[in-house]
Amino acid sequence: MERVVESDSGSGESDVVLSLDSIRESLIRQEDTIVFSFIERAKFPLNSPAFEDSRCLHSGNSSSLTEFFVREIEIIQAKVGRYENPEENPFFLDNIPPSVFPTRKYPPALHPKALSVNINQRIWDIYFKELLPLFVKPGDDGNYVSTAASDLACLQALSRRIHYGKFVAEVKFRDAPQDYEPAIRAKDTEALMKLLTFEKVEEMVKKRVQKKAETFGQDVKCISGDDKSYKVDPLIVSRIYGEWLIPLTKLVEVEYLLRRLD
Amino acid sequence: MERVVESDSGSGESDVVLSLDSIRESLIRQEDTIVFSFIERAKFPLNSPAFEDSRCLHSGNSSSLTEFFVREIEIIQAKVGRYENPEENPFFLDNIPPSVFPTRKYPPALHPKALSVNINQRIWDIYFKELLPLFVKPGDDGNYVSTAASDLACLQALSRRIHYGKFVAEVKFRDAPQDYEPAIRAKDTEALMKLLTFEKVEEMVKKRVQKKAETFGQDVKCISGDDKSYKVDPLIVSRIYGEWLIPLTKLVEVEYLLRRLD
Lengths: 262, 262
Prior knowledge:
Two copies of one chain form a homodimer. The first copy, chain A, is an all-alpha fold.
């Protein structure tokens, strides 16, 4: 489900067929991952010293615990080949270390310029400054290590979803290049945004993630009770999708399309 | 919820009060984490080359991709202080590197010998040989990096749950030392196992995790349909608890109690 549908064109070359169905299926499945990661993060309060303070003792740089953790984990993940997958975009790696394992070959599905579309710095800032305070309790319980691990899971799930816009844009472009080419050549981001916007679909996504947060964030008991409390507010999840995730995904789509004819 | 309840005894020393309620609450919350991690892992087929083959190119040792990944990640996690938390037990770290950040002080809740109870090697073997084939599809889709990351999440969730037996044993011992001491002194593991077994509670746990797998693993749609398919078979999750997780937790409880009077 996380993969792009591949087919052999019969010409001997392995051609990549992106279908809107397979992309939609992946995006729907990624909603579960995002909701799970929010629920897991909500076990802990904000714990802002983990990502605000520079409390590093020996590492020589002045990053927060969370930034140190994410940087180091990304290096390990790069070593096993994570960033050869066009669905994954690093937060900090300017120089991605090579994989120490034989890596999988991903048949090219995107325009080569896709690599230069990476809005993770923005996702990082939005996540810590705007999203996190919406769905976790304020406070500090000292559980910085677990918090950093949970934040990493959220950040990577959000980043994957948002950068999946590259695949969405590619398949939409391939379906109707004549619609997109004039706007791309004119660098008309507003026209592109209009072409990429389907309000009914967006409303459906927002409703579905609300229902997922209700379903996955309830207290499951053997004997059903009437108390409906959720580990993460379903309306907040819907709002995060509507105000941030969907617009940021479309931003990635536009950024990708602007490079599509290079 | 992940923390041990602490209270100030008023004597100036911070005393740790373990309550069976807080431990039960944590174990129940950990069920969600375990079910989430299984559902996320089930996105991928078995992908056995990730954890069976030794395909490492440059690292000089002959570990599988998954083992390499877990070892390296544990080093980073140790550096931010993960293993100073008595709830966390490493899989591979014989020499845990010191934290590079000021670490949280965990007031001692367990007997110092708790550190020597670590059955992660066994958990690792059982997970890959017995559990994983039960809840993922057979096959190989090449997604080894995502698979290794999902396996790590499952392994750490299982390890935390099973080693939480130390806290369970400690609170049970404190509640009725007179019941446990004779069996501990006699090293009578059978008698200890009997004292620690409550079949009704175990049945309730198995039913609850089944319901959690049904709830969290369903396809949530905006329009309700009749199709009930689950991402992970709820009966399998119940069986994994009954045949492995609960017995292994009790094994940890016994191992801990055997050292409790040292």
